[in-house]
Amino acid sequence: MVSIKASVMVITLLTVCLLATNASPGCCRNYMKTKIPFLKIKGYSVQTVTGLCPISAIIFHTKKGKACTDPALNWVMYYVDRLRNKAQMVHMKSTQAGI
Question: Cα–Cα–Cα angle for 98, 61, 40, nearest 5°?
Answer without folding.
Answer: 85
